[in-house]
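Task: sequence design from structure.
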């Protein structure tokens, strides 16, 4: 049987939104897209659900001299998820990890200013945060994002991706309240392998999609207030956050979360 692939990120977002229909028009819900590739997906999800869109900035921590090899990832607030396998194999010292993390944290802050264009970050406290990316391989990027969101004490954390490695979904199910994934191929290869078109998303495209989402929501807000009414108020004030393990902001990111990378050599499996 021919393996299914998404046409592009926009189509993947449309299909993902259909699986998240229960969160449509929820005043407590918001979409947090992971730049850059997760933003076109997240934009389609937020537009279909009629909920706000923001970004959760996550930067890969590249091994010095081998930057394409990730030793982990860092997210807004200084939350890190580190790959112990890579760190042990290469004997990377703590001081070097801290140096790389500090440099990338500056890039996180720069990107936040660039993408939001003066708009404040969305409030996450006691809300349902839907974290969206275009796919997950090892899950280090998403894991760092989850840790950063937990600092804000949301009511629920939903991870939503079009495609991901099967065991990565299982691992992250322990970190979030729900994982929504359309395809879980066991022979994963790479995220881009599951898209017909997988061009690089630019900073300008990210900023434009965020601005467009904010305008669209502002236009729709009066109608949403009329249709939701008292039901929306009850839904927002009545939410009770489940017990979540909080991540903590630390000065030396390597102490927070260290995760192993696994090999995936199984037959493909599609989850509808």
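Answer:
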């Amino acid at each position: 049987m021919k393996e299914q692939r998404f046409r592009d990120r926009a189509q993947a977002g449309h299909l993902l939104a259909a699986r998240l229909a229960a969160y449509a028009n929820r005043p407590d819900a918001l979409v947090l897209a992971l730049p850059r590739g997760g933003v076109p997906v997240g934009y389609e999800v937020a537009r279909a659900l009629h909920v706000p869109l923001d970004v959760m900035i996550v930067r890969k921590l590249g091994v010095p001299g081998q930057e394409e090899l990730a030793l982990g990832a860092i997210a807004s607030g200084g939350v890190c998820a580190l790959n112990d396998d890579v760190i042990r194999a290469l004997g990377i010292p703590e001081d070097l990890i801290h140096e790389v993390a500090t440099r990338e944290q500056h890039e996180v802050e720069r990107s936040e200013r660039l993408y939001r264009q003066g708009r404040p970050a969305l409030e996450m406290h006691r809300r349902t945060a839907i974290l969206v990316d275009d796919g997950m391989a090892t899950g280090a990027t998403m894991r760092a994002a989850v840790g950063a969101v937990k600092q804000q004490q949301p009511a629920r954390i939903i991870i939503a991706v079009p495609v991901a490695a099967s065991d990565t979904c299982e691992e992250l199910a322990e970190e979030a309240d729900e994982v929504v994934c359309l395809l879980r191929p066991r022979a994963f290869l790479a995220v881009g392998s599951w898209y017909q078109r997988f061009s690089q998303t630019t900073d300008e495209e990210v900023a434009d999609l965020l601005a467009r989402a904010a305008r669209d929501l502002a236009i729709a807000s009066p109608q949403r207030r009329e249709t939701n009414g008292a039901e929306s108020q009850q839904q927002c004030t009545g939410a009770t956050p489940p017990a979540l393990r909080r991540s903590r902001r630390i000065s030396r990111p390597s102490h927070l979360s260290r995760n192993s990378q696994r090999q995936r050599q199984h037959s493909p499996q599609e989850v509808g």
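The longest strand covers residues 66-75.
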